[in-house]
Design goal:
Elements lengths: L1 E6 L5 H12 L5 E5 L15 E4 L6 H12 L3 E3 L2 H6 L2 H11 L6 E4 L22 H8 L3 E5 L9 E3 L2 H8 L7 E5 L5 E8 L3 E6 L18 H18 L3 E9 L2 E6 L9 H4 L1 H21 L11 H7 L6
Parallel strand pairs: 1-2, 1-3, 3-4
Antiparallel strand pairs: 5-8, 6-7, 6-8, 9-10, 9-11, 11-12
Helix pairs in contact: 1-9
Length: about 325
């Protein structure tokens, strides 16, 4: 019997529906359940053929436990090694290299010194930075947000350099991105599961959270195809099995705004019943597919084109 587990926190609607959907399919030799961890012994298999990870970004113990599970043969969705290495600034740098449109973006050192460092720890960093060049490149209005993600926490819309310095003084030890504002006419949030299944959802980020999936954006066939290709390309290079990509359309061009969301919102109360049904069914079917092809004791992780091409010394494009 192969077990599919889902590792989650206080989230309930998606994990419960995911487990129920897999078990309702009555696939021979496959059963699903919430992950249960009773011990953590090095090189000891997890007991799961597949694990869907929804919480390790917030729980370091889970992240390192999942790495051991992966080493001993579990297909972890998403790859915990890559997820640990990834960040939103690197994502933008990679997209520039592979031809995906992204906003102009720079990275800003933390306002406060990290723990156990002194000014001497930053002897290679110019002070002050070349703010004139930075601000001319990005322009205003701009958005400032943490380089490592975190949803909508610590996100600021800034109209001027003075506002930047004022808000940056509140960010403590966070390393921040400063990013060009894309004034969009349409906006979409796109699930991508298994690197091949795409669900493009009209999304209005300026609305209250519970109303963001209620919008009248309606892409034509050409834009729909263009966005689908961008979503597939992004996930192919990053190697995520389960991710969302946010695309803002300006002058007919979809810009990838946010595309490192490996535990994306899938709550029925926010995404709505139709999107919820799609993500439950698609995730359940893909998890079964992964379980059926999983090989005991081998590497069953998904690795993106960036890593694969780097290991083979191949160019990105």
């Amino acid at each position: 019997m192969k077990k599919i587990g889902i590792l989650h926190g206080k989230e309930r609607s998606f994990p419960e529906a995911f487990v129920a959907r897999i078990n309702s399919k009555n696939e021979a030799g496959i059963v699903a359940e919430p992950v249960r961890i009773e011990k953590a012994i090095q090189a000891d298999p997890s007991g799961y053929a597949v694990i869907i990870d929804r919480i390790s970004q917030d729980v370091p113990f889970y992240r390192t436990w999942l790495k051991n599970a992966a080493v001993t043969g579990t297909a972890v969705i998403n790859n915990p090694f890559w997820w640990s290495a990834d960040d939103k600034y690197f994502n933008n740098c990679l997209m520039e290299k592979i031809g995906v449109p992204v906003p102009k973006t720079v990275i800003i050192p933390s306002r406060e010194l990290p723990d156990d460092t002194t000014n001497e720890s930053f002897s290679n960093l110019a002070y002050p930075l070349d703010w004139h060049t930075i601000f001319n490149y990005v322009g205003f209005p701009a958005y400032m947000k943490p380089f490592a993600g975190g949803g909508w926490k610590h996100v600021y819309r800034l109209a001027s350099a003075d506002e930047f310095f004022n808000k940056h003084s509140e960010t403590g030890q966070l390393v921040m991105l400063l990013q060009e504002e894309i004034v969009f006419t349409e906006y979409y949030r796109c699930y991508c599961i298994g690197g091949k299944h795409v669900r493009i959802m009209p999304y209005e980020p300026r609305s209250p959270h519970h109303l963001r999936y209620v919008s009248d954006f309606n892409p034509g066939p050409e834009l729909l195809q263009q966005m689908t290709e961008i979503v597939l390309k992004i996930n192919a290079y990053l190697g995520y099995d389960f991710n969302t990509v946010e695309l803002a359309v300006r002058d007919g061009i979809p810009y990838a705004i946010d595309f490192c969301n490996p535990a994306p919102d899938a709550d029925i109360n926010s995404v709505g019943a139709e999107n919820f049904e799609w993500v439950v069914e698609t995730a359940a079917s893909y998890a079964i597919e992964k379980a059926l092809t999983q090989k005991e004791g081998e590497d069953n992780l998904t690795w993106g084109e960036y890593v694969k091409r780097g290991s083979n010394k191949m160019p990105l494009i």
